Input
Amino acid sequence: MLRVRALSKRYGGSRPRTVFTGVDLEISGGDYVAVMGESGSGKSTLLNLVAGLDRPDSGSIVLDQIELTRLDDDALTLLRRERMGFVFQAFHILPYLSVAQNVALPLSLLGVDHDEARRRVEAMLADVGLGERGASPPSELSGGELQRVAIARALVHGPRLVLADEPTGNLDAESAGQVLDLLRGQVKTHGAAGILVTHSPVAAATCDRTLMLTQRGLSEIAQR
Output
């Protein structure tokens, strides 16, 4: 589903820096992969490249046989909207919308019929354990519940690729564990390819495999 080949990224300016070179990665549907690395190793940069939010200096990124590096900005925006879902450390929940309206945003952008969108939102909220909270304002939810809303929003449109960047960074240990289990379960249930960027070995252990990112690329590390 996702194939990355010989990916390299450098930043210029007065002090040019190579973030990484020679990154290779393959992920199939239902495969959930953790990417770890030291601070500044380029984990979030890699995620931004895979999402088409930034451009590599060399290499290729292919999602569902579509070469991202050959697309213009408008085509990348449409591809992200249709085929990707995002979960971030900051929940990015809009405070002036209800829980259900937040989850429905990707469907609205895709022009999904109102009744169909409502059905999908209700089903997703039930899947993440918030079936009774659709009408609630986000201010009434805990941090863990808000991240559940973010997961529902990321998956409601059936993305092919789910990208999660430190999704438990703002949560206590109990809520983090619940969110990690939920995220893994939802990726598996929906058959999406998933990438979890994390500094936490505990979070990485919930994935099928763990990769270490350095300036020389990705290498797999053994799961305990």
